Amino acid sequence: MEYIEKLKEIAQNLLFYIDEMGCDNKLSILRGWSLIGEPSYGEVLAYQTQRRSIVAGYNYADKKIIALLEYSGYTNTEIFNQWFEEHLCPSLKPKTTIVMDNASFHKSSKLIEIANKFDVQILYLPPYSPDLNPIEKVWANY
């Protein structure tokens, strides 16, 4: 696997994983169990809450979260690029490799410009492989 071969070439202290997560309580169960011919009842929120999102970096070598940012709403290219430039990159050493998934907002030309400005490399995870990103385990315990 090409991704694994590239990882082997990177010094662990210069390897950071990034990811975003979000949560809200507007999810509703739209199906339920009931006796045949009887309606199924459930509860749904009568109001809409705001989504809270978090983006952060994670150094696998020392198990530390860096550049954590919490905000309202969903992640988009503008929010991600601003976080990348103002929070993440200034806290990294030159030649650091940043591993991220293939979300559409991770693929902008502006992001490449920012990475070049700070002399950091971007390595994309293989598609559909969140299990290769250790920060996912951090989110699972958040």
UniProtKB/TrEMBL annotation:
Q: Where is the Tc1-like transposase DDE domain?
A: 15-140
According to the record, the segments passing through the membrane are none
* GO MF terms held by the record: nucleic acid binding
Q: What is this protein called?
A: DDE superendonuclease family protein
Q: Which species does this protein come from?
A: Francisella tularensis
